[in-house]
Design brief:
25% strand; 6-stranded mixed sheet; homodimer; 17 strands; Molybdenum Cofactor Biosythetic Enzyme, Chain A; 5-stranded mixed sheet; alpha/beta
Chain lengths: 408, 408
């Protein structure tokens, strides 16, 4: 059986655009994997009527309903009260929860506020989901085969409660779930419509579905369904049709794939960045254990630092400019020597909004690579704003190198 | 008058957690500022019934309804058809749109797919919102004083259509809108409940509202409402109560504030990072024109690079370790000299999941600063995973320095 779930994200900050709803990203992927795919996510204000209306609609329609947000200590946190009213339960002060909150504050060596007392008010017949990451406990209630969870909105606390309580509770209560299986085939160098031209869901075996998931600068092909055999057959079809663009299957990130490859060969990497200003290195160092294959790098934002640290020649900068394939190749060579690395990446470009020229309009980025004593280069032109141009370039730097290493 | 709007975010990728709904962030903040605050955002699957149900509910209740997503060329993009059916309009092939799509492909030098033809199908009586960033045109329809917009899901295209079409259309159609005014007072060094203890919405003048917006490692206080005078008075109350923790008002980012301060004084910055691995520099270089005050920096991930590039003494590393205030101060001194900067930041710590010790458990981060010939340091202990620890440290590095400069 497959069950459906609904997520209600509560909080003014989500609707006025101050906070991006990252919680939904986590819940969506975890619940789908567990066999309770999210069918709807309603983002609403901390307003009594809105919360009541949303819970009423979802509780009627879905097997699992999860709210996030509105459990904090401030006066706009009203989720707890509305839930109690909806289920017709009284709020009761819970000594054990209060003791836990007191301990949390002691541990953090922060002064506790009186307002935190409301966080110990629990609707009767509800189960408290102990929160070891913060002061707002989660709340759980079950009735007529349906399951209701209220979780705090702070991402670290929400994921903690999901992992330590919800998984267990859902598994214990549904013994006939058949989790969705899914596989992501990551592509690079082809557009969404290009892929749609190559392959269609109609060509896949029955029971296998296909989704095109555009990332920044690349597209993932997701195959999903509950029949493992259909999925395997579907993967073969997709690989046959679009294999030349697929660089990995179910990878955590381009950086993780590259680092695994380097670690296996005990090779060391160094990076020099200009326009991406640290973003490529942020990707690399986001991977736990990256220090085994990553030595470090330089953000050479000024021409002086390109010359002094990386040994880019003054004549190269004068003749070709800082944004050129000549400069980026010297940067790659220089940073490899500086860190005594085996392989290096270098990036330079025009992220805008200013600085564009006829030769190098805003969005032009040059990539230089040095692998042993071989050099190669790549160029990318992106549209969009500064953030998008940098984001695309930061991942492309890693994928250009990885594809080159695979081809060799 | 204030009007209310609804956003319907369409796409399986949003519900299976593959894509975070960043579009809602943009629309939420822009629409609130224009006087059409978003009252609900429904995230739903690319399914006929779900889309129909959602549009029916929102079109009845709200003045402005915006859908995003499902206008692409692939077979799961059905928004266009469902909209045509809901409003009882036939789809017609639009030659002008087709010509525009053809041009876009030529410009990109990409092979056009036949599937793109569906993107030129427009419901009769709808206005085409020309898309200069992609192949999916936006769609606009108005009836009975209500306004319906269908926008593509790709963020760059969505924001482009919003800025170039929606703003104008909404302004032309509502001459009595009174935009929400809002002001963000950014705090650092105090918790959400700490702030809730200091100040409550009840203490503010009527017409002014208060929201606590937790960021990663800091909290913003937002004052909002439609009465400018009430807002000014409210700001005075908030500054009187929590002024010591406020580092800026309506700032773009900590990095932008620091860079402005440096530029005014013609001072130059350099940065050395270990555990944050480029993230501090990514923040700094995200600001357009940062090169005026930012020279560059080093990601010294290995001990060798800390010694060789930054001049950290072997004895310091041996005696105190790479994660210590002694090392971080030498890193700060070293990177300042290396780049011949006026001011420097250095960061070292344990981002986890491994590498924690009794003295420095996972989450411990040391910050070193060098301002002229003065040094100072700071330390932060964060809970949560690798990503959260690095994220908190990257912004804290900038804010510790900025607060120090303000105090001097």
């Amino acid at each position: 059986m497959e069950y459906k779930s609904a997520v209600i994200s509560i909080g003014n900050e989500l609707l006025i655009g101050k906070t991006i709803n990252g919680n939904m990203g986590f819940l969506g992927s975890e619940l789908a994997a567990m066999g309770f795919p999210v069918d709807v996510c309603e983002m609403i204000n901390d307003e009594r009527d809105a919360i009541l209306e949303s819970i009423t609609r979802c509780w009627e329609k879905y097997d699992v309903v999860i709210t996030t947000g509105g459990l904090g200590p401030t006066e706009d946190d009203i989720t707890r009260n509305v839930i109690a009213d909806f289920f017709g339960k009284k709020l009761q002060f819970d000594d054990e929860v209060w003791e836990h909150i007191t301990k949390m504050f002691k541990h953090r060596r922060t002064k506790m506020a009186d307002s935190n007392k409301v966080q110990a008010m629990i609707p009767e017949d509800f189960t408290v989901l102990r929160n070891d990451r913060g002061t707002a406990p989660g709340l759980y209630y079950s009735e007529g085969g349906k399951h209701f969870f209220a979780l705090p909105g702070v991402p670290a606390e929400m994921t903690h409660l999901f992992n330590f309580h919800l998984r267990e509770i859902l598994k214990d209560n549904f013994d006939d779930i058949s989790g969705m299986v899914q596989q992501d085939l990551h592509t690079f160098g082809v557009s969404e419509s290009g892929l749609a031209e190559m392959i269609s869901e109609k060509e896949l075996p029955e029971g296998a579905h296909l989704a095109w998931l555009p990332q920044t600068g690349r597209v993932d092909l997701r195959i999903y369904g509950s029949d493992m055999e259909a999925l395997k057959a579907a993967r073969e079809v997709v690989v046959r049709k679009a294999g030349e663009f697929i660089w990995a299957i179910d990878a955590e990130s381009p950086a993780a794939v590259l680092l695994d490859w380097l670690k296996e060969r005990k090779l060391k990497l160094a990076i020099a960045e200009s326009c991406t200003g640290g973003w490529v290195q942020k990707h690399i160092t986001a991977v736990p254990g990256s220090s085994e294959a990553y030595l470090g790098g330089v953000v050479s934002y000024s021409n002086e630092s390109k010359m002094k640290l990386l040994g880019v020649k003054e004549s190269t900068l004068a003749e070709h400019g800082a944004v050129s394939s000549e400069t980026v190749l010297e940067m790659a060579r220089g940073v490899k020597e500086l860190f005594d690395a085996d392989i290096s990446i270098a990036v330079t470009g025009v992220a805008g909004p200013d600085g564009g020229t006829e030769v190098n309009p805003v969005g032009t980025v040059y990539f230089g690579f040095r692998v042993g004593d071989k050099s190669f280069e790549a160029k990318q032109i992106s549209s969009g704003g500064r953030d998008r141009i940098r984001h695309r370039a930061a991942e492309a730097a890693i994928l250009f190198l990885y594809n080159f290493l695979m081809d060799e």
